[in-house]
Structures are given as structure tokens and as C-alpha cells.
Amino acid sequence: MRSMARKWKGLAAALLGGAVVFMAAPAAMAANGAGPTPPANLHTVSATSTDIVLAWDASTSKSGGINYAIFFDNNPTPFQASGNTQFDVHLNRAIGMTPGSTHTFQVRAEDGTGKASFSNKLTASFAPGDNTPPTAPANLHVVSNDSRGVGLAWDPSTDESPVSYFVDGGPCSPMQVGSATQFTWPSISTDPVCGLQPGTTYTFSVRARDSFDNDSAFSNSVTVTFNG
User: Fold this and answer.
1) What is the CATH classification number for the domain harbouring 168?
2) What distance in Å separates the CA atoms of residue 228 and residue 225, rounded to the nearest whole number?
3) Which site among 14, 78, 140, 209 is 20 to 30 Å from 86 CA-CA?
4) pLDDT digit string (tens) for 93-138?
5) How many CB atoms lie within 10 A of CB 104?
6) Can you give the residue range of the structural domain that contains 203?
7) Could you give the strand order of the β-sheet that contains 222-225, starting from the edge strand earlier in sequence?
8) Is this structure's pTM higher than 0.85?
9) Residue 189 domain flag
């Protein structure tokens, strides 16, 4: 009888131990299955004519590190902010981020298992700013054509802010050349990637871009065969 009692006691203990393990697993799964907590309190830290700085409260998760993505308007492609809880939305005319424009933002938190949660939505605006492009560079002309490359010069653009110039027509176009109004496109002998080939004909033009990413119209164009 004592032997039988010991067997039943051992079986009960084994069953109980199994029950404890069985009950613990769903609890852990439930905690992990919930995904990250929503990134709360999405708000604007600052807004200028060129930048909207967003911030939010960190999410928590039991499934590893959290990465954040910032969605804007109805665009399915988000900005990526990695693990940071602050993000600078910079002026970008290609996607409609211009001075004075208004946008709706929302942050997605994603944990190590791929589960996600979303913040509140926030509407924010860039401060008003310059949306007027520079005047087009004028009088583009060739000033040299020798073994160093093709030298180009032009009359400057006018604008409310400083401008940079971009030269089109050669390999690797457009070539950003800064604020100077003269540029020598190098020969392939000195620039194997973007250099000009001797005996090849190129048509060049120049445009200006201001500090607010406004692009001017193109200058006149010039066509030249590189002597090399």
C-alpha cells in the first residue's frame, strides 16, 4: 500500500509539474504575442520652413529591440528612424515637403517578432518660406577645350538665398559644382569614372538650386566636341 501511495504521489507531482509548465507557456506567449506598446504622445518639437522635428514616447516589448518608422500623409513608404524616438522631417520637394505645407504623421513601432503598434496621428506644418526658384543661369559658354577637359562659364543666377549650380551633359550628370560660375569638366585621363572622352561631342547646360531646394530653369545649352 505504501508503495502504491508513493507511486500515486509521484504521478501527481509529475502531473502537477507538467501543469505548471503548461500554464506558464501560454502566459509567456500572451505577453510576447501582444506586440510593442503604442508609441504614445507623438508631437512636434519644432517647426521651421525647412524642418519639422517629431518626437514620441518609447514603446516597450518583451520581444527584443524596437524600430520605428514614420508614415506621412497617404504615402505607403515611411521614413525610417531606427531605434530613435525623435525624427527630423527635412524639406523635400520631391515628396511635397515644402515651406508652408501641412502633413499628417503617424509612427509605427515594430519589435523583434515583427509585431507592430501605431501612435496617435499628428498634423503639423512647415513654417512659411521661399518657394520662388532662382533665375536661370545665362550666357553659358566654353572657355577652354584642352587635355584637362572642357571649361565652362556662365552668368550668375539671382535669388533671395545662396545658390549652388548643377552642370548637365557629361558622364555622371548632374555634376554639382557649388557656388562658382565656372567649371572644368575633366578628361577621362584624370577622372576615369566621370571624365570626358576625347573626340566625343557633349551638350552642356546649367541650372541653379537655392537653399530651399527651388530649382531654376536650365541655361542655354552649348555643344562641344572634346579635343582631349
Assistant:
1) 2.60.40.10
2) 9
3) 209
4) 999 999 999 999 999 999 988 999 999 999 999 999 999 999 999 9
5) 12
6) 138-225
7) 175-178, 163-168, 201-210, 222-225
8) no
9) yes
